[in-house]
Design goal:
Number of helices: 4
Strand content: 35-45%
CATH architecture: 8 Propeller
CATH class: Mainly Beta
Bound molecules: calcium ion
Shape: globular
CATH topology: Methanol Dehydrogenase, Chain A
Radius of gyration: 22 Å
Structural class: mainly beta
Number of domains: 1
């Protein structure tokens, strides 16, 4: 701060006021998790704990929780976005629109329409969705399905800048929410199922100018380039479609990277760095400081994109600056985020593809079933299936209970490989799956991050596909694909409350306060990869149609 101030004082008064405004934004973003009146970024703060210090809604009062308003999002393709809040206005996205909504009356303040070519939808693998935006420096920043990043004026909804990042005809799309750190907007692409070369890109918050790219696959000659044969890395996947978290003290962004392409691993022998990894990068430059790979040479579409939750947490009697990550591959990782050291990796669902993680090398110990697949033998089956022990929908962490709240998935699968050749912008997967689901396809769990001990759990026949959120009032919120918005006691797991929202909940709840009153907001609107691609006849009676709901104590 002091350095910025001194430098700008020399340059002139105009620059000075800009620098002060920018400094204020940085501080607000740093403290977002402590300031319950606003929710500026995805994850309810840079640490992505999805924890709120608010207590008004608690196990004693929650029976009075009732809807205040519902706002139609004019959308039938799935509402996976997390809303954000600033100064009594809620900002909400779909794949085609951005809305500003009065937080108390539920009336629209402005909307901004996006236009894109219809053939964009051809390269969207897993739902015509958007997962939200970020508020910084008087702007609302979001990404678009057709590969652009856009900043809107918070007050008017008018476009401030829009930058084309990638060409969607190459197979790229953007569905994730950006992160904003140190004056840089960070966004990452989807598209591993279309043979993209995945990357994270940084844009100047003020101008929208592209500053750098961090590629998530390594070409020959680059560090890690020897983990890919020939030119396979140039269409090797490694998307990054879930928002990274940020530690302002370390000035590091922690971003998860997706699966290598195609899914059948025989065409790409090697570890395939830096797919299925967490990469710690500097937001200003994109410089990679450390990485850890969850699934080397992934044969199962175990995207490593799931969110990275940051906390100070006791590990073996020592307080550590940790990063917690429940991976698609079924292991719950606890990593020292200062240096990438693996501290713990315990299964959080039934895991049969690996017998454990070697704590010395950090590598998974592949099971007999996976060895069968690697040897080209039929008759193998592993858990979890490609949907993972958990998918993109974020978990939460309570610094009070020290537990993680995770909607986990129960599945097993096998597949037959199909020969596939890379063609620009075409599907590049190369398998036919065979799913094997138990009766309960999902389990909501409260888990100790280090021991993996389950403190409480609730089974769901249709798995939950929404985020969780937990509060200092000791209430944990989540939603069901059959439409119920649900609240549980965070310590005991006792179900406290529910409300039927009218469509399936695949969104991410938030809570916020205004004039001393606590509110809870969540999007409802069925869609996304499970309802589209997995197929579950039990969802046939759940109507589509998005709405943003806000609740308060009556
Ligand atoms: Ca806040
Ligand atoms: Ca994938």
């Amino acid at each position: 701060m002091m350095r910025t101030f001194a430098r700008c004082a020399l340059i002139g008064a105009g620059m000075l006021s800009a620098a002060l405004a920018f400094g204020q934004t940085a501080q607000e973003l740093n403290n977002d998790h402590k300031t319950p009146g606003d929710v500026l970024t995805n994850g309810m703060g840079y640490n992505q704990q999805r924890f709120s210090p608010l207590k008004q809604i608690n196990p004693g009062t929650i029976k009075r929780l009732a809807p205040l308003w519902a706002f139609s999002t004019n959308n039938v393709t799935g509402d996976e976005a997390q809303a954000t809040v600033r100064d009594g206005i809620i900002y909400m996205t779909t794949s085609r629109q951005t809305f500003a909504i009065d937080a108390i009356s539920g009336k629209q303040v402005w909307k901004n329409d996006l236009e894109f070519e219809n053939d964009v939808l051809r390269v969207v693998c897993c739902g015509i969705v958007n997962r939200g935006g970020a508020i910084a420096d008087g702007k609302f920043v979001r990404a678009t399905l057709d590969g652009q990043v856009q900043a809107l004026d918070l007050k008017t909804g008018k476009e401030v800048w829009k930058t084309k990042s990638v060409d969607y005809t190459d197979g790229f799309s953007y569905t994730g929410a950006p992160q904003v750190a140190n004056g840089v907007v960070l966004v990452s692409t989807s598209g591993a199922e279309y043979g993209i070369r995945g990357m994270i890109e940084g844009f100047d918050l003020t101008t929208g100018k592209s500053l750098w790219r961090h590629y998530n696959t390594a070409l020959p000659g680059e560090p890690g380039g020897d983990t890919w044969p020939a030119d396979t890395a140039s269409h090797g996947g490694g998307s990054g479609w879930v928002t990274g978290s940020y530690d302002p003290d370390l000035d590091l962004i922690f971003w998860g990277t997706g699966n290598p392409a195609p899914w059948d691993p025989t065409s790409r022998p090697g570890d395939n760095l830096f797919t299925d990894s967490v990469v710690a990068i500097r937001p200003k430059t994109g410089e990679r400081i450390w990485t850890y790979q969850f699934t080397p040479n992934d044969p199962f579409d175990y995207d490593g994109i799931n969110e990275m939750v940051l906390a100070d947490h006791m590990v073996d009697g020592k307080m550590r600056k940790v990063l917690m990550h429940a991976d698609r591959n079924g292991f719950l990782y606890v990593i020292d985020r200062t240096n990438g050291e693996l501290l713990s990796a315990k299964p959080f669902v039934n895991v049969t593809w690996a017998d454990g993680v070697d704590m010395k090398t950090g590598r998974p110990i592949e099971s007999a079933e996976t060895k069968k697949l690697r040897a080209g033998l039929p008759g193998w089956e592993v858990s979890p299936g490609a949907i993972g022990g958990k998918n993109w929908f974020p978990m939460s962490y309570s610094p009070i209970t020290k537990l993680l709240y995770i909607n986990t998935l129960n599945s097993a699968w096998s597949y037959s490989p199909i020969k596939v050749e890379y063609k620009r912008g075409q599907r590049f997967v190369g398998i036919t799956p065979k799913w094997n689901f138990p009766e309960n396809r999902g389990t909501l769990k409260a888990i100790d991050p280090v021991s993996g001990k389950v403190h409480w759990a609730h089974d769901f026949k249709i798995p939950n596909w929404s985020g969780t959120m937990v509060t200092a009032g000791n209430v944990m919120f989540t939603g069901a694909q059959t439409g119920e918005f649900l609240a549980y006691d965070a310590t005991t797991g006792k179900k406290l409350w529910q409300f039927q929202t009218g469509s399936g909940v695949v969104g991410q709840p938030i809570t916020w306060e205004k004039d001393g009153k606590q509110y809870v907001t969540v999007a409802s609107g069925i869609g996304g990869v499970y309802s589209l691609r997995i197929g579950d006849e039990r969802l046939a009676n759940v109507p589509a149609g998005g709405a943003l709901w806000t609740f308060a104590l009556q």
